[in-house]
Design brief:
elongated; 3 helices; mainly alpha
Amino acid sequence: VINRMLASSETSPHSETVSDALDELSRFADRHFKAEEAFLTERRYSALQEQRASQQLFRRRTVELRPMALD
């Protein structure tokens, strides 16, 4: 997703392309994080709260990129 976004921004820096890539990245991350949490919960991972905080930081940063993509 990131490689495609970077490649498309170099050849066609349309904000819609970057915005679409951010949407795709967000959907992928959500699916990944849900699967990861289920796996870690099942195994009683002791640092699950820290992992959730890391996931939330990623989500926040992805949201923060959106206005820049639309400039």
